[in-house]
Amino acid sequence: MSHGRLPVPLEKDSGLIVVDVQNDFCSEGALGIPQGESVIPELNRWIRAFRDAGLPIAYSRDWHPSDHCSFAAHGGPWPPHCIQGTPGAEFREDLVVDGRLFCKAFENGRDAYSAFQARKQRADGALEEISLPAWLNSRGVRHLYIGGLATDYCVKHTALDALREHFRVTIIGEAVRGVDVAPGDSERAIHEMKQAGAQIW
């Protein structure tokens, strides 16, 4: 299959996961990643290519209750972010959204960094029992391309779970950015993903 501007040809068993490109994870957000929004032009390029090829696209997002266990007030490491129904939980308006939506970390006592822990969300906002890996498998996806936020947390955990589930994984290097709570966290995450079998473009 030919897809012009992309650096790789897309096989018919390819799928794209766009991880957590939400307002609260962009630079001005409640848990802002420096230059987080800079991933969007590259992601949009891949999204359009997958859309034009008729290949599956999944979008994950944090969908926290207001008393989520990951928040500092409840013993977690993070400030409140991506609270259900708030503007911070929405995707950036310049991100092309044309695929299936999956929500994670929607239970107050359970955290979830990996999109493989997410469940499909209907247009009316209700969550279905369908998990992301089940949805991908039902569409014959075996090779996952992954981009989004953040390299050292949700992208990493999604990629590692995908590899454990025996998907081939390619990380879109120009379409990920990290939190880097400790300097070098993103570089270490890239190394860990490569060591586990992911390819980095």
The quaternary state of the protein chains shown equals: single chain
How would you spell out the order of helices and strands? EHEEEEHEHEHE
CATH architecture assignment: 3-Layer(aba) Sandwich
How many H/I helices? Answer: 4
Q: Radius of gyration over alpha carbons?
A: 16 Å
User: How many strands in all?
Assistant: 8
- What shape does the CA trace take? globular
Strand order in space, largest sheet: 5-4-3-2-1-6-7-8
Helix-strand makeup class: alpha/beta
Q: How much beta, percentage-wise? A: 15-25%
Question: For the record, what CATH class applies?
Answer: Alpha Beta
**Which sheet architecture does the biggest sheet show?**
8 strands, mixed
Question: Helix proportion of residues, in percent?
Answer: 10-25%
* Amino- and carboxy-terminal Cα gap: 19 Å
Which residues form runs of ≥5 with pLDDT under 50? none
How many domain regions?
1
Please name the CATH topology. Rossmann fold
Mean pLDDT across residues: 95
Fourth-tier CATH superfamily name? Isochorismatase-like
Could you describe the 3D structure shown?
This protein is 23% helix and 22% strand. The protein is α/β, with parallel strands linked by helices and 201 residues long. An eight-stranded mixed beta sheet has the order 5-4-3-2-1-6-7-8, with helices on both faces. The mean pLDDT is 95.
Features:
Rossmann fold, eight-stranded mixed β-sheet, 8 strands, 23% helix, globular, 201 residues, alpha/beta
